[in-house]
TrEMBL record:
<feature type="binding site">
    <location>
        <position position="233"/>
    </location>
    <ligand>
        <name>substrate</name>
    </ligand>
</feature>
<feature type="binding site">
    <location>
        <begin position="12"/>
        <end position="19"/>
    </location>
    <ligand>
        <name>NADP(+)</name>
    </ligand>
</feature>
<feature type="binding site">
    <location>
        <position position="146"/>
    </location>
    <ligand>
        <name>NADP(+)</name>
    </ligand>
</feature>
<feature type="binding site">
    <location>
        <position position="324"/>
    </location>
    <ligand>
        <name>substrate</name>
    </ligand>
</feature>
<comment type="function">
    <text>Catalyzes the oxidation of glucose 6-phosphate to 6-phosphogluconolactone.</text>
</comment>
<keyword id="KW-0560">Oxidoreductase</keyword>
<keyword id="KW-0521">NADP</keyword>
<comment type="similarity">
    <text>Belongs to the glucose-6-phosphate dehydrogenase family.</text>
</comment>
<dbReference type="GO" id="GO:0005829">
    <property type="term" value="C:cytosol"/>
</dbReference>
<feature type="domain" description="Glucose-6-phosphate dehydrogenase NAD-binding">
    <location>
        <begin position="9"/>
        <end position="185"/>
    </location>
</feature>
<feature type="binding site">
    <location>
        <position position="180"/>
    </location>
    <ligand>
        <name>substrate</name>
    </ligand>
</feature>
<dbReference type="GO" id="GO:0004345">
    <property type="term" value="F:glucose-6-phosphate dehydrogenase activity"/>
</dbReference>
<feature type="binding site">
    <location>
        <position position="176"/>
    </location>
    <ligand>
        <name>substrate</name>
    </ligand>
</feature>
<dbReference type="Pfam" id="PF00479">
    <property type="entry name" value="G6PD_N"/>
</dbReference>
<dbReference type="InterPro" id="IPR001282">
    <property type="entry name" value="G6P_DH"/>
</dbReference>
<feature type="binding site">
    <location>
        <position position="214"/>
    </location>
    <ligand>
        <name>substrate</name>
    </ligand>
</feature>
<dbReference type="InterPro" id="IPR022674">
    <property type="entry name" value="G6P_DH_NAD-bd"/>
</dbReference>
Length: 470
């Protein structure tokens, strides 16, 4: 299956995600020998020809990919590319796919089709109809981008419509945070070691923070974002998926169904997200942007407390935060352990303990895990200092072998491996738990660009404190 030739149809081929991640990612997969004998058919609403698309793709790889895109490097990849405008209709699309298949047919193997829907939730339905009309459902897998709907009703409608055309086994709902090395390392740490298993619960863990501040603004994505906001863009998607890896019970095996079952149980155990557990923020100046309503209520920042009512996690809050135009960029999952039962090292000066010890997963591309704890400061007397043990994946493996999240997941989808993808049931449960918040969102609070968000985040987490900035 791994070597099966593929026609990859990229919907939204000239969009932000395609330029930033998908086209450079496909180039890398190709160069890593993981995309042999394939063709890529780009399609979008833009009326352009193949030459123009190839130029757009090259510029994107130059700007967002790794290394210079020389003629020699580009030529073999460019040969795989073609373009058809979505406006040309389903028959033109079918024809473009068939032309590519004819090229690949000389290999004599069955040709797979991978439709990548890099389009907003509303447009996904149109694309699915088009694929149906074009007769491009057979031998196909589709990758769908988040957000999957914008609330429970729309997610259900979308999933129902998808299932009218595609079998669930053909559907890959991508959440690229699960493709990050450190996210998968949560599973490795938890289930490959005897050390962490006994402490992974309410008896030893005080609270968990999943913190993804971004310095980035909205670049060219304002129109999409205005109708989405930070909660739908990041929380019901990436942050909750990562939370599920952190919180789930050991699955019966690391196969797709057992993992999805355990994640679903976490989502079901979550208390509904109530407005009083959420801080919504909007950076000062957002309302002045083109495509933003003068009185826009879209949040560019959100922080919340999530409670999981099961035996493992009862009483252990999970604090989530993410937002645009914040002071620093980071993507950490930080587990704070309980304080020792008695204090022998009085707090104050630099003698005592200050705050909990932590296990931290850094989801940055250069992923890093660290365990920080207290030790004796060398020298006279008994003073403590914070020590840290670090494991940096990029220092122990060659960078060539590390795939970026999207690269890894596209490759998994081509092989039919659902392990790191999300399910309709899981996503619908998350929307269901979001109903109180979505029905009655607290007003957005302003925050200064370059800050850590509105002041109310400190009340939200008290008596704990945000781990960042380090
Ligand atoms: C995307 C969101 O899914 O993830 C963006 O739409 C966000 O708003 C991005 O910036 C963050 O991804 P990464 O891989 O850069 O952490």
């Amino acid at each position: 299956d791994m070597e099966q030739p593929h026609v990859i149809v990229l919907f939204g081929a000239t969009g932000d995600l395609a330029k930033r991640k998908l086209l450079p990612g496909l180039l890398r997969l190709f160069e890593a020998g993981l995309l042999k004998d394939s063709c890529i058919v780009g399609t979008s609403l833009e009326e352009i020809d193949t030459d123009t698309f190839v130029k757009i793709a090259r510029d994107a790889c130059e700007e967002f990919g790794k290394g210079d895109v020389t003629d020699a490097r580009w030529a073999p990849f460019a040969e795989m590319l073609s373009y058809v405008s979505q406006g040309a209709g389903p028959h033109a699309l079918a024809e473009a796919v068939h032309v590519s298949e004819a090229v690949l047919a000389r290999h004599g193997e069955e040709i797979g089709r991978l439709h990548y829907l890099s389009v907003p939730p509303k447009a996904a339905l149109d694309v699915i109809r088009q694929l149906d009309e074009a007769g491009l459902v057979e031998r196909s897998r589709i990758i769908m981008e988040k957000p999957f709907g914008t609330d429970l009703d729309s997610a259900k409608r979308l999933n129902a419509r998808v299932h009218e055309v595609f079998d669930e086994s053909q559907v890959f709902r991508i959440d690229h945070f699960l493709g990050k090395e450190a996210a998968q390392n949560i599973l490795a740490f938890r289930f490959a070691n005897g050390l962490f298993e006994p402490i992974w619960n309410r008896n030893f863990i005080d609270h968990v923070q999943i913190d993804v501040p971004e310095t980035l603004g909205l670049e060219g994505r304002t129109a999409f974002y205005e109708g989405t906001g930070a909660y739908r863009d990041m929380v019901v998607t990436h942050l909750m998926q990562v939370l599920a890896f952190m919180a789930m019970e050991p699955p019966t095996s690391l196969a797709p169904d057992p993992i999805s079952d355990e994640k679903l149980k976490v989502f079901r155990s979550m208390r509904p997200i109530e407005p009083h557990n959420v801080v919504r923020g909007q950076y000062n100046g957002y309302r002045g942007k083109a495509a933003v309503a003068e009185d826009s209520d879209t949040e560019t920042f959100v922080a919340l407390k999530v409670e999981i009512d099961n035996w493992r996690w009862a009483g252990v809050p999970f604090f989530l935060r993410t937002g645009k135009k914040l002071a620093e960029g980071a993507r950490i999952i930080s587990i704070a352990f309980k304080e020792p039962p008695l204090t022998m090292f009085p707090a104050g000066s630099n003698v005592g303990r200050q705050g909990p010890d932590h296990l931290t997963f850094d989801l940055a591309d250069q992923s890093r895990m660290s365990l920080s704890f207290y030790g004796k400061k060398p020298g006279p007397g008994m003073k403590l200092e914070k020590l840290s043990m670090q494991f940096a994946t990029h220092e122990t493996s060659s960078s060539a072998s590390v795939l970026e999240a999207y690269e890894r997941l596209i490759h998994d989808a081509m092989r039919g491996d659902h392990t790191l993808f999300t399910t309709a049931a899981g996503i619908e449960t998350l929307w269901e738990k979001s109903i109180p918040l979505l029905n009655d969102p607290p007003p957005v609070r302003g925050y200064a660009p370059g800050s850590w968000g509105p002041n109310a985040i400190h009340q939200l987490i008290a008596p704990h404190a945000w781990r960042l900035p380090f």
